[in-house]
Amino acid sequence: MSTATVPATTLGDTKVKVLKLIGWAGILGAVVMIIGGGVVWGVVSSQLAAEKITVAEDASFLAGAPVVGPFSAYAQADIINHHALAMAGDKTYAELDKEDPLRATVMNASFLRTSLFTSVVSFGVSAFAIGMGVLSGLFGWAILTLAPAWPKKTTATGVRA
């Protein structure tokens, strides 16, 4: 087993301190992002669960599953669109005549899809925050690991203690 020596650093005391602080900031940012992303994911999931929505049985995937996550929310939004288009003869809300009695139903379907897609985006942003938190923590840890030790304090006589 060989022991490698770390080359002497040419960084001054101030740069070493700044480098260490950046490392700690990365780790602190990681904690905030991971917790924040997890909390948002949990809130969105619990709010969807409270609505007691189940993916329609004729959905292309996750049929019958409770809508509590990004994939089930997407599946339900997709089947709502399918049903609305089938009911309106493949016309969207904007394409229907203003006097068409189906227009209100298609509009409600559009609103439901938008709400479900908003939750899908929220899950995505939460996952992104958690992922970036993990990366930030790894970068902070790497900086702290590779940076030289904190400079020793200088005594009144100018000698490092």
Give structural notes.
The chain is built from three helices and no strands. By secondary structure, it is mostly helical. The model has no long low-confidence stretch (mean pLDDT 90). The two termini are 32 Å apart. It has one domain (14-146).
Give descriptors for this structure.
161 residues, mainly alpha, 62% helix, rod-shaped, transmembrane helix, transmembrane, membrane, oxidoreductase
Give a nutshell description of this structure:
The chain has 161 residues and is mostly helical. Helices cover 62% and strands 0% of the residues.
Rg (CA only):
27 Å
Overall pLDDT level: 90
The number of strands is 0
The largest pleated sheet is described as: none
Low-confidence parts = none
Strand content: under 5%
Helix content: 55-70%
Terminus-to-terminus distance: 32 Å
Spatial shape: rod-shaped
Q: How many structural domains in the coordinates?
A: 1
Structural class, from helix and strand content? Answer: mainly alpha
Number of helices: 3
> H/E order of the elements?
HHH
Q: Secondary-structure map with pairings?
A:
Elements: H1 13-50, H2 70-87, H3 103-146
Helix pairs in contact: 1-3, 2-3
